[in-house]
Amino acid sequence: MLTLTDNARFAVQDIAARAGLPEEGGLRIAESEAQTGAFELSLVAAPLDGDEIIDAGSAHVYVEPTTSEILADQKLDAVPSPEGTGFLLAPQDAPDAGADGVAR
Questions:
Q1: Distance CA 7, CA 27 (A)
Q2: Angular region, 57: left φ>0, alpha ψ -120 to 50, beta rest
């Protein structure tokens, strides 16, 4: 199952709150229809039928079923930047990214 780093958990909580999502709202990850091998992130008010639900405190991440299988051994991390927050995927045993995006 996809896991979240503390950075990702805080980022998802912050983004959902700023967007005014309801309590069950969160970040949804799905395979991109436009680009093979890429993923799309979207803010949603609730999970779609069949989504894998990952709750980390008040951070909610929903993963499309097929994407869930692909990301089963990955972790979601977040890196803040002047342009906003960037998300990245890494193997679960990889070090977390620091505030500057460099693995620690």
A1: 14
A2: left
- Going by C-alpha positions, the residue among 73, 74, 61, 75 that lies closest to residue 30 is 61
pTM: 0.86
First to last CA, the chain: 23
> Cα-atom radius of gyration of the chain, to the nearest Å?
13
List the chain pLDDT tens, one digit each, 104 residues: 999 999 999 999 999 999 999 999 999 999 999 998 899 999 999 999 999 999 999 999 999 999 999 999 999 999 988 888 899 999 998 777 665 544 44
Domain boundary assignment for the chain: 3-91
Q: What's the CATH fold of domain 3-91?
A: Hypothetical Protein Aq_1857; Chain: A; (2.60.300)
